[in-house]
Write a structure and sequence with these properties.
alpha/beta, Rossmann fold, seven-stranded mixed beta sheet, mRNA 5'-cap (guanine-N7-)-methyltransferase activity, nucleus, S-adenosyl-L-methionine, EC 2.1.1.56
């Protein structure tokens, strides 16, 4: 069951830690995470949550990616979606990530793919401060741009958010899709506002979210300070993440996306996504094939399900 952060356990504003979220520190965090392999991953305390997240990404790719398409995987990490791209029978993949060690691990995975039917190129770069277009051949256009669990790092400031969106849109063809997953800022803000006065975090035994810049109003009835950009919090998820992140102010994100020719087609919190997508027969069968249900692992816990609600899935179309 959920374990909230008790009032007496929370540091006051003056005592709360400040988190280093420079690009180098984020890259270092992901570079230092070992690639433990499939067998070891099955021993994770959050194996069902991991499988659920993979199911969401698989459904998104199945819905919006077609054979022989060109794909840009921005923030590709260690290449956790390589098999998904292979199953989608894409033509060409461009993969970019700020963590160079992670990217090297992805390249190694790519070389050992049994169904390596698509070509690929890899770039170690910060896609929130550098442009991808000058690195690509002039005639290359993307049918799909995918950003999985990484877009929120761009919302440190408006400049980074705009460079990210320029990278999304500049080579995305008209009618092409921009798909992804990221923390649901509405869910997070609502959840932290349910906490007692002077409590600035929440979580359970597998995850925690703690803010360092928000504050209570004078009457202790509402937490404030959720800025449009640079609203930083520390996110910890067992066996996965332990670094600072930023809230994505959705109205601002959707407005900016529109400036870059991107129109929202779909947006759903993971809980709602499960309710709708699991009604489709093929996606329902995939729940067992991908390990969300069935098999020898314990069933998904209530704490894992709560953590799944942190995220949302989205899709934009290029005008």
């Amino acid at each position: 069951m959920k374990r909230g952060f008790e009032h007496q356990d929370q540091p006051n504003k003056a005592q709360r830690p400040r988190y280093d979220s420079t690009p180098s520190s984020v890259a270092q965090h992901y570079n230092e995470r070992p690639d433990v392999g499939a067998v070891k991953r099955k021993e994770s305390k959050i194996i069902r949550l991991r499988s659920f997240n993979n199911w969401v990404k698989s459904v998104l790719i199945h819905r919006y990616v077609r054979p022989n398409q060109n794909v840009f995987d921005m923030g590709c990490g260690k290449g956790g979606d390589l098999i998904k791209w292979a199953k989608a029978r894409i033509h060409h993949l461009v993969a970019a990530d700020i963590a160079d060690v992670s990217l090297e691990q992805m390249q190694s995975r790519y070389k050992t793919l049994r169904d390596r039917s698509f070509t690929a190129e890899f770039y170690a770069m910060d896609c929130y401060q550098e442009l991808i277009a000058p690195k690509l051949r002039p005639d290359l256009q993307f049918d799909t741009v995918s950003m999985q669990f990484c877009l929120h790092y761009a919302f440190e400031n408006e400049k980074k958010a705009r460079i990210m969106l320029q990278n999304v849109s500049s080579r995305l063809r008209s009618g092409g899709m921009f798909i992804g997953t990221m923390p649901d800022s509405n869910w997070i803000v609502k959840r932290v506002r349910q906490e007692p006065p002077r409590s600035f975090g929440f979580g359970n035994s597998i995850y925690s979210i703690t803010f360092d810049d928000i504050q209570d109003t004078d009457d202790d009835r509402k937490k404030i300070g959720f800025s449009t950009y640079g609203c930083k919090y520390m996110f910890h998820l067992v066996d996965a993440v332990d670094c600072p992140e930023y809230l994505v102010h959705w109205p601002t994100f959707e407005r900016l996306a529109g400036e870059y020719g991107l129109k929202l087609k779909f947006k759903e919190n993971f809980h709602d996504f499960y309710t709708s997508a699991s009604k489709e027969e093929e996606h329902s069968r995939l729940l067992s094939r991908i390990g969300v249900i069935g098999g020898q692992a314990p069933e998904m816990t209530e704490e894992e399900w709560e953590a799944a609600g942190i995220y949302l899935a989205f899709a934009f179309e290029k005008k």
